[in-house]
Design brief:
With about 375 residues, this protein is an alpha+beta fold. The chain is built from eight helices and 15 strands. About 20% of the residues lie in helices and about 25% in strands.
């Protein structure tokens, strides 16, 4: 490894230096084809024993990620678009990031990104790019999909940056069919412990027409330490591919049912008590699909944050994913951050990469680690009525 990669390696391995034994994972994390865990990321194995664990400095770690990636093309710059609400009320924003990070096993396996060099899909490179993207924006709430390196990378590294988290793997993850996989992929939800206190978290296996499916959601209830206000956050990933529109609609209805029950419970059964709600996910659905309409017309009073980028305020971005597979090119909007418009307001939205920045070979690439773009928004609580 070069100097930058070596320093990043040494910093990250410190995360585990306080343990007296190598990392262990729950039995459900193991592939049924593996009798024992043998595929822990070598860059994250235990290096020293009985040493104190020191919190990581996010600025230093970001610099080391950038140094480890110094041979790549220039970092893709994105800017925040700030929403003018016509008032001078000071608020402390809540930064939320939604991102399908692309499961490593799928990226190098079945996804078949024909225009992406294999080297650009290496985990050592993608890991640094993913961490760089997260560290660049430092969200207070982070919702990820296709996470298959939760236990050996994201949970321990982000825990040392001050994040607590919950992970829900898919029951039948396709990652487990890829040789050398790192376990099942799933949804992960992280929150900044300095900003929020955990009240509750539940993993949901989504159903369609009362039949359990392979798609999941993590739903976490948090209390803001500065304001005392509560917010319920959901991270989900619905069924992919054309022809499954009815299935996604049923899964979305199931998630909405769970969330309606939860906010009713949080409101003490009083329908007049409005609980702030954020729903982040890769819905695998374009805005014309039924599942999108179900969320847009839900009694929960939801709106899609990224509509704020449009001039008319009602249109979604042209794309949140842009890739070329063996089956052809796909450029469409599949990812959303939904919020309750009566209790939360959007203060800023991170703009999208343009076609020139993405490049002719599309995503993923040497510059960007996923086929989906991250969505980042700043929210604030509306004043209670």
């Amino acid at each position: 490894m070069g100097g930058g990669a070596t320093r990043l390696y040494n910093t990250l391995t410190q995360t585990f230096s306080g343990s007296s034994s190598p990392l262990s994972l729950p039995p459900s994390y193991l592939s049924p084809h593996q009798p024992a865990l043998t595929n822990l990321d070598s860059d994250f194995c235990l290096q020293q024993k009985n040493s104190p664990v020191c919190p990581l400095d996010p600025v230093e770690l970001l610099q080391q990620c950038e140094e480890a990636l110094r041979d790549r093309p220039p970092h893709l710059q994105r800017n925040f678009v700030y929403i003018d609400h016509g008032d001078d009320v000071a608020s402390v924003p809540i930064r939320v990031m939604q991102w399908n990070i692309l499961a490593q096993a799928l990226g190098v396996g079945v996804d078949n990104f024909v225009r992406c060099p294999l080297e650009a899909l290496s985990w050592s490179r993608r890991r640094s790019l993913i961490l760089e993207e997260i560290l660049a924006y430092r969200p207070h709430i982070l919702c990820l999909q296709e996470v298959d390196h939760y236990y050996d990378t994201f949970q321990p590294v982000l825990a040392n940056l001050g994040y607590s988290s919950h992970f829900c793997p898919k029951p039948w993850s396709p990652c487990l069919n890829v040789e050398g996989n790192s376990g099942p992929d799933g949804c992960a939800l992280f929150f900044d412990e300095s900003r929020f206190e955990l009240l509750d978290s539940v993993n949901i296996r989504l159903s369609a027409m009362m039949i359990p499916t392979n798609q999941v959601a993590v739903v976490t209830t948090l209390r803001c330490r500065s304001s005392g206000r509560c917010v319920c956050v959901a991270a989900t990933h619905l069924k992919a591919r054309s022809g499954w529109e009815w299935f996604r609609s049923a899964q979305g209805s199931d998630l909405l049912w769970h969330l309606q029950n939860l906010v009713q419970e949080l409101g003490g059964g009083n329908s007049n008590v409005k609980v702030p709600l954020l729903i982040c996910g890769d819905f695998n659905a374009v805005p014309s699909e039924e599942v999108y309409r179900r969320f847009a017309t839900s009694p929960l009073g939801l709106d899609s944050a990224y509509k704020k980028l449009s001039q008319d305020g009602v249109s979604e971005p042209e794309y949140t994913t842009w890739k070329i597979r063996g089956t052809g090119e796909c450029c469409c909007t599949l990812d959303y951050i939904w919020y309750t418009k009566d209790t939360l307001r959007v203060d800023a939205v991170l703009d999208m990469l343009d076609e020139k920045q993405i490049g002719p070979n599309r995503l993923p690439s040497y510059s960007y680690p996923s086929d989906h773009l991250s969505l980042v928004c700043d929210f604030s609580f509306r004043e209670k009525e």
